[in-house]
Specification:
Two copies of one chain form a homodimer.
Chain A: E1 4-7, H1 13-21, H2 30-43, E2 50-56, E3 59-68, E4 75-83, H3 92-106, E5 111-117, H4 123-131, E6 135-145, E7 148-156
Parallel strand pairs in A: 4-5
Antiparallel strand pairs in A: 1-2, 2-3, 3-4, 5-7, 6-7
Helix pairs in contact in A: 1-2
Chain lengths: ~160, ~160
Amino acid sequence: MGFDIHPMTAGDKPQLMQLLAATPEFEPAEIPVAEEVIDAYLARPGVDYQVLVAEESLCILGYICFGQTPLTRSTWDIYWMAVAMERRGRGIGAALLRRAEDSIRRAGGTLVLIETSSKPNYLPTRRFYLKNGYKKSSRIVDFYAPGDHRITFEKRF
Amino acid sequence: MGFDIHPMTAGDKPQLMQLLAATPEFEPAEIPVAEEVIDAYLARPGVDYQVLVAEESLCILGYICFGQTPLTRSTWDIYWMAVAMERRGRGIGAALLRRAEDSIRRAGGTLVLIETSSKPNYLPTRRFYLKNGYKKSSRIVDFYAPGDHRITFEKRF
């Protein structure tokens, strides 16, 4: 594989923020929200959020952020996920997702949810989830904006 | 009506917390989460959350907590709502909901979502939303716990 996956540390943050800013699917308004979640994770790792990064030769290639859904028995959310544009197609996203799922299963999770957009530029993202064993669970029309629906994917253990 | 509705202030909190603790639909684990949201509202009213209370003769009868859904153009969430058990059936919940909807509409909101449980003791709650013009929008099986599904209701303006 050439890369390894480990829990994010504070030192990874500058590179990760650059990766997020360069991720074409993210709107500028999403970056500060993703950062808030990263900061909440760094302040109390594993309490509300877990963050894993994929790294190769000191270079951050991608990340995944997940956590147990508050007030549920065993439901978990994959909140954020990104792989650097020029590193896609090497299985980094699938490896990150698998590691997150392993961790969720070990913690007793039985349901994993991922919310994503119906926009055309998210088609590769949606195909990625389907290919990795997720099913479309529900859809809320015009959730993000007119014409931009929220699709929720689910996987059950 | 005999009661009035106004934005919550810090002085309302002790009574409101007693009301929440006595609300039979709420599980004990939900109370600290509801309190966190109330504290976030009191710290920065109207930023992430708005809270309205119904009051009569200095007595808090019910409350509603809502806010714009992060990263959406014009979607709003009704996060929490409660009416004291012994005050139900007087239209307090409907009045709180109408006031929240007015405020959402004035702020440009076009979609209101309410997530609730499929449990039998939430049947009056689900009927209340249907009676007030909400439609079932989606359902995620076993979301809260095995057998306890999440039902999302929606209203569009």
